[in-house]
Design a protein that fits this description.
The protein is an alpha+beta fold and 235 residues long. It is built from six helices and four strands, in the order ββααββαααα.
Length: 235
Amino acid sequence: MLERGYLTVGRLRGIPIRLHWTIPLGALLFSGFTFAPAFWIGFFLLVLIHELGHATVVRAYGHQVLKVDVTGFGGLCHWFGSASRMERGAIAWGGVLAQLGLYVATLLVLLLTGGAHARWSLELASVWTGTNLWIIGLNLLPFPPLDGAEAWRFVGDLFRGNPFPKSRFLTRRPRPPRMPKSPPSKPPSGNGASKSPPAGGAGSARDPGKSLKREDLADVLRDIGDAAGRARRPR
């Protein structure tokens, strides 16, 4: 019955929002079959906020939201992605937390304004407080397809110490390490500066590629002259 009969009323950040023809039936059922237009509108917004809570967490983990459906007996957030078990649990809590946020906001408005007095405000306050809590309790029952089946499993994983999945909005890309700048070379100074030993000193080896000193060259030429003189002497 719910496969057809949807009307797309708009898009929110590219997400199609679809309404089903059973919404008036659900509104009448939850309002006790009374004429309460503000209650009906508040009920529709309550279901929509719940599903948008799911959609927000889905997008936070980098998955794709396909569409959001609102029916007279609840809603459905269609999404796609290879989510882990912990991520599915967090997505399940997204709708409940959105409802709790609406509940707290309604209480604050009632506290600041001195309570609801007009009929329409009384109806909105009723659906966003009492009906809101009733739907939260029903939705947290640990049975599929209710959100409680995944939500309480998520809580159990947290108590067992499983790592909490990180959102792509909270995860920052690591910056590449900075290479330390080499300090400019300065001539050694001060009493503690080490000096290189002089060439040819103790412990140093003569480099054969270096040119000969004057004394060494004179010794070589003297040896060559002596050898030539011995060669010219008659035997």
